[in-house]
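Lecture 7, part 2: worked example. A protein chain together with FE2/S2 (inorganic) cluster.
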Amino acid sequence: MNSDPFHVRSQWTEKREKGQPPEPEFPGRRSFFMVLLGVGGAFVAALLSIPLIRYTIYPLLANTTKTSWSSLGPLDSFSAMTQPMRKTVKILQVDGWRESVSEKPVYVTKGTRPGAQNGIEVLSSVCPHLGCEVPWNENRGQFVCPCHNSVFAADGSYVSGPARRGMDTLPIESQNGDLKVRFEYFRELVPDKEVMG
Ligand code: FES
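Predicted complex, written out as structure tokens:
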């Protein structure tokens, strides 16, 4: 018996030289180890890449908005208002790795929902239906969303349309007689107010 490990190969070479067709080559032990090595390498590479992927997409998964308290003016100055008053607050928007400051309109209005201060509450102008900006319609004495016609009363409560709840009240507080508000985003299309960020 020939102990040369390349004996088989030599036979094939001889056959080739004699013009005979070579015997089919079956995957041997070496092919098996090559496949095993490939699968193992791919598995290790996938494991090592998880932290990198998480680090890369973290900004997309993280909160996209950071806000702080903004002053809206003396609380007393709103006690005589006869209709909602539009104000703007600054918001720091985090979009992936980029940060930008934007302004959002809010409405100071009279209301008694939880969190109101001296009968004053502040409404987000973001429609709870699909997020359009809801303006105050002075002629109608109501908030009317221009996108799908949801209608809200002066205190933000739901009147009609596809929105599933009233306009959202924002957290407010009074500091040394100054009315302060913190802007938040809320989940749309749900019947109950749910903070998103
Ligand atoms: S976004 Fe306001 S009614 Fe649809």
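Residues 29-61 form the longest helix (33 residues). The helical segments are 7-17, 29-61. Keep this in mind for problem set question 3.
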